[in-house]
Amino acid sequence: MSDSRFIRPGRADAAFNGVVGWLTRIGIPLAGSRVLAVRGRSSGEWRTTPVNPLRVGGTRYLVAPRGNAQWVRNLRAAGTGELRHGRRVERFSAIEVDDAEKPPILRAYLKAWAWEVGRFFEGVDAHSPEERLHEIAPGFPVFRIVSAAPAHE
């Protein structure tokens, strides 16, 4: 699987993301969702998208189930972003995870979020062998969230 993999959202996905983003912005996150805000790598404007932060062993991560989406490219360039829900804003730094470290994170992500994003994993699920998770790892960017102090509440 290519590390340049990207799955463009369809109409249904765009509508679902719109609803999830709206609910999260007004303070009603769906199953722990947040709105990720990252400065655009060219424009410098804030870009937002709903994400599903994941906690594994006390560390939080962002997984990109669609591959190298615009938010991934922007986060790589900026290195920082914000996780928002309601009026709460958490500033963070992002550290991209090496492919070798991804399998347990991808497995946990699939356990938590397969109901929403499982179709993007092309037949791989939380019960797939470790080798299969290693094979697909390059196509799924993962970032470790390193929190700063909350920006405001």
TrEMBL record:
GO terms for molecular function: oxidoreductase activity. InterPro entries: F420H2_quin_Rdtase (IPR004378), Split_barrel_FMN-bd (IPR012349). It comes from the Bacteria. This is Deazaflavin-dependent oxidoreductase (Nitroreductase family). The lineage of its organism: Bacteria, Bacillati, Actinomycetota, Actinomycetes, Micrococcales.
